[in-house]
Input
Amino acid sequence: MHSPIFSLEVFPPKPHAPVGTIYDALDGFEGLNPDFISVTYRHGSHANRLKTARIARTINHDYHIPVVAHLTALYSNKASVDEALDLFRKAGVFGVLALRGDYVEGNEPCGEFEHASDLAAYIREHDPDMQIMGACYPECHLEASCLEEDVDNLKKKVDAGVTHLITQLFYDNDDFYRFLDLARSKGVDVPIEAGIMPVRSVSSINNMTKRNGSKIPVAVQRLVDKWGDDVPSLQQAGIVYASEQIVDLIAHGVDGIHLYTMNRPTLARRIWANVGPLFQVKE
Ligand code: FAD
Output
């Protein structure tokens, strides 16, 4: 166990991608010894539940790393949540990141879980041994009218059973510190891991910021303006930027760092080479 906590996130390979890409990624993490790896989940179907569970099982059984599975609520009913929990338990998952998920145009939500807090409450009741994690948003969730309101809702999520939070990616640590102060002042007292995603290409940063509403601070925009057409240099600058973010977060006593790896072990390894020695190893 590290202090602060150090975790990684991976996603199941996209439908057209060779399934081996995930094993290449997991092989590439060797030596990083994260406290856990979380596996994302795409909406709804039995096939998606299986994909997340299979990768979780591999991480746990073959790589001997504790594993967390993501699960979304909007397009799930109680039967599919039960099925997911059963699959996850058999895969050796110790925690579920309980999420609402995003609305998909043209798809009608199941209507049984409106918010992540509803899913958290259901898991707490039906699988009390499972640790329940949740998401939070230092820059405010896109649909909330303000950060105050969003943090009030976050408190409901914690009251429903969430015992560990992971933030959306952010590029300005001051946003995180502002959010953290507010969350603590409103009684959100569980560990909060800071989500860090290194800049790696112009399209990826544009997609992520469009999807999440994350802002691009001037310092990051400068990197993109300078090296937008030169991917190796932009990635190098992104690694330095992410490493400096992490150093500053650790200096401020952050509970944990959750690295969005995008299944790219090289980026994760290069960041770890810079900041790994700052994490203490606890028994
Ligand atoms: P909620 O907590 O339900 O919040 C959504 C909105 O509702 C917010 O505006 C909030 O203020 C409001 N709200 C919350 N609770 C209440 C309440 N009780 N009453 C009234 N209003 C409320 N998406 C995927 O599809 N798959 C993934 O694997 C995935 N992994 C993620 C991992 C992390 C760390 C993060 C930060 C996000 C992830 N997402 C994933 C994206 C996530 O599903 C979206 O951000 C989604 O829009 C919100 O999910 P949530 O769980 O935060 O929702």
